[in-house]
């Protein structure tokens, strides 16, 4: 099969298109024919070696965790899916090796869920990591009806899905972004505020008594979080471990297929949107990485084998 691989840590220049064996399908696993795979910042951070102290690497690496595709084969004692099922996954395994930037990927059933019927392949590929992150943070924070929620980074992949999840749960949402993305946030159901100097005052103007929940998806905003949080409020971050010292929760996404199923059901029930900024063919995956590394793209960047 065709796959993008790298044999050493480095920049996107280390990626090359190679021929690799089709993955074996063990017990409790499914083989997925990849229709689309999304680029996430963690992908190029792993490739650069930034997470070497946390994750074991087996070179050559096929990068990519997010995937949408069709079940091609099932292993022994794999009752959850059948050949032909349309599925999605955040396919983070116990070590980094066989990822989604290839024609096929083999994954444990526990990491897989059915594809939302309302999303196309590219949109579906952009859902798992970003969507699970938002879903699990807001679930941990027990967001529900009557809550006022501040989302830092509302126009990003995680934040935009977080807005939609919180609104679906009956919460009022205030979200930060640049002024250029305010109409986008309003369309998702949020009240937008510009980030930068004076943010605390702008949030306080909308919620004079403070907000019940803060979800930080960008980092570097702890002072604002603490300044606008109502007494007894809850907060969590996926980007700043210092929240723990201030009563918050520092979270790392769990690729659980059961949570992904619940998220996919929410997507179909409420008509969530997943914005795709651009799609690249497999042999241009390095360019997809470079675009993601700029950090200014609204919407997901996708690779299609």
UniProtKB/TrEMBL annotation:
| Organism field | Cryobacterium roopkundense
This chain's protein is named: Alcohol dehydrogenase
Q: Name one Pfam family in it.
A: ADH_N
What does the record give under GO molecular function?
A: oxidoreductase activity
Q: Which residues form the Enoyl reductase (ER) domain?
A: 10-303
CDD domains from the UniProt entry: MDR_like_2
> Which InterPro entries does the protein's record reference?
ADH-like_N (IPR013154), Chloroplast_QOR (IPR052733), ER (IPR020843), GroES-like_sf (IPR011032), NAD(P)-bd_dom_sf (IPR036291)
Q: Where are the transmembrane segments?
A: none
